[in-house]
Amino acid sequence: MPEVLTPVIPENITVHLGAPDSNAENVTVPFADYIKNVASSEIYPTWPENALRANILAIISFALNRIYTEWYPSRGYDFDITNTTQFDQAFVKDREIFENISYIVDDIFNDYVIRQGSVQPLFTAFCNGTTSQCEGLSQWGSVSLAEQGFTPFGILQNYYGEDIGIVENAPVANITESYPGVPLSLGDAGNNVRIIQVQLNRIAQNYPAIPKIENSNGIFGSDTEAAVRKFQEIFNLTQTGEVDKSTWYTIKRYYNGVKGLAELATEGITLEEASIPFSTVVSEGMTGIPVRTVQYYLSILAYFNSNLEPVRIDGVFDENTLSAVRRFQEFYGLPVTGIVDSATWNTISRIYTETVNSLPTGYQGNNAKLYPGYFLTPGIRNQSVEDLQTYLSLISQNINAIPSVSVTGFYGEQTENAVSTFQRLFGIPVSGSVGPITWAQIAREYDAIIDSGT
Hints:
454 residues, mainly alpha, two-stranded antiparallel sheet, 43% helix
């Protein structure tokens, strides 16, 4: 089963105390405290408990939707939500919190409403139902339903439809901005690339000039670069083909718009769309390609840095790998957990790339060069592709099943077919692209042939 990126409950939320464009104060408060404040400002503590719970769930989901869609950051603001009911929901700095509301929030602050089949928090619009009317929940109407014996879920279904669901006990985490911190470009790979690919493909349904990315596999190939360039052209961004911060948030803003994620009648994000190809955490007891990738990087780094610990490349996260990860984390000032989370992996990847790039010109390792630090994909033309083709050309002379390859420096269909065949023969997931594990195996086979003199 592929891993799915689902929302978490933020530890904190930043509130702008005024309309979005006003010169007002921003305050950052714990998320649960924010919900208590809004609930104490929006509803009455004397209402039936079922009405209170339904309203609080709507308040939670509304706030989470703003955070999940990065509604304001994607528009250049430095806050998550405003305190104006014209745009969001009421928040009064330093106000008194009602005791029964505080109790309910503590019980359900990490629950939220979804549309069945979707993963993002539903945009649970609401109004008081007397002086203002809307398509969502009527606050006073919810009181009447509670008095008739409706459950909190029944009240929510009455306003948002029979096809809603409740996510319960979602994990709490420290949420940072979604932009990965560095531009994504040709050869990059990871879950952030997959997110961009999915979003561009959906935007392309409304803007058909954007070419479709046929394989949303998390590898930034030439088709992804072409889609990014066309998106940048359409939306008056600098046409670099790279996803910098401006392009990242512009893509996100238009994706939110075409999907209607901040609307009651949202198209929704399906589980398939939210699936990701790369592990977000690699830890003790795991096996497979993610573990081998970590081991490969660490083994190369340990060769050049005696302060690090050598590790076997066997695809098993055992005590040896755990010790090597901890040594790396300690040396580079990371929390020493032994778990390869995003922060640890980003540091490993960065140090590896810096190490490879700092090697003297012409350095060959044994015979084959070290993995260049980025994925080689169809459409790329450079020296690393030429090196790859050189290795595959010799290997194909010794393994007849692998098609012969011309050494041109351009990663075309011929190279892709040879790579796919090699991956199939050596038990590597077939992608037609060359990441660290495929490169390492190709280099190993090439070196063995050179060393044998055949």
